[in-house]
Amino acid sequence: MTIWQEIKDSYKWGSVLTRLIYINIGVFVLLRLIQAFFTFTTGPYAESSYPLLQWLSMPSNPLSLMVKPWTLVSYMFVHYQFLHVLFNVLYLYWFGKLFLEFLNSRRLLYVYFGGGILGGLVYLLAFNLVPSFYHYFPSGLLMGASASVMAILFAVAAYAPNHRVYLMFFGDVRLKYIALVAVIIDLISIPTLDNTGGHLAHLGGALFGYLYARSMAGKPVQHRHNAPEWKNPLVGLFKPKSKMKVTHRRPLTDMEYNAIKVKRQAEVDRILDKIKMSGYDSLTKDEKKVLFEASQER
């Protein structure tokens, strides 16, 4: 199996969190590859003049936003600097895994987009209503998944504030303290005028995550997991392509379990023999799925 095929299969059968990470990385790589092409053909572009970056990042000017309304969503997946995308993806993975310990994937997707949108709106309002920001930053662009990541952190921190995680050099730390430190860092960073728009968006994302978790505080557990939710128009990008039907049945005996395991291994061996004879491209869609699932179990 080629690396590209493994990536396609892991995206196709992966979780919502996996897909969010892949899309963020994929957009970053694509933007830089296109920029490299422009560099060899028409000359180099700086970050501030890169047309595609301007087209996907969220502007602080309301009139520009009206011309490019999609940027309120697209900016959440746009990164230009390597360290920017690296840390955002790492935080998304860590906090997303914590989120999924308590809530489901659909809620993770909802919080990601909801936090990003509210973060973008806070950025827009602040840059147009606060005189000091408006005069110092007459125009600006917002990009990155940070607001969405902050929403996920604050949602899980508000939902399970006393849950402990291990941090190097600090030991076990409760989630509520991690969230508190994160918001304090953003607040004290705003006066430095360094990435001010990003810090403002973080606060909007944090507010969304907190309010979302608090809105579920008084609900029974089954409502927290199964209640109807907002239907995201992009949900098809993140919904795993699974045809599995859930049924209730008695637990398998050891003999039945071993028989299924032997049968599954025989199917994997048959597929591997087929690859040796005819190559990977000769496999059917179901055979590729069986092989991918078997590789994940090992």
UniProtKB/TrEMBL annotation:
Start and end residues of each Peptidase S54 rhomboid domain: 69-214
| TM stretches of this protein | 20-40, 72-96, 108-130, 136-161, 173-190
GO CC aspect terms: membrane
Give the DUF6576 domain ranges. 254-296
**What's the protein's topology in the membrane?**
Multi-pass membrane protein
Subcellular location(s) of the protein = Membrane
> Which keywords has UniProt assigned to this entry?
Hydrolase, Membrane, Protease, Transmembrane, Transmembrane helix
Q: Which InterPro entries match?
A: DUF6576, Peptidase_S54_rhomboid_dom, Rhomboid-like_sf, Rhomboid_protease_S54
Q: In its UniProt record, which GO terms are filed under biological process?
A: proteolysis
Q: What Pfam family is a match, any one?
A: Rhomboid
Primary location class:
membrane
**Which GO MF term does the entry hold, naming one?**
serine-type endopeptidase activity
Task: Report the family membership.
Answer: Belongs to the peptidase S54 family.
Its name, as the record gives it, is: Membrane associated rhomboid family serine protease
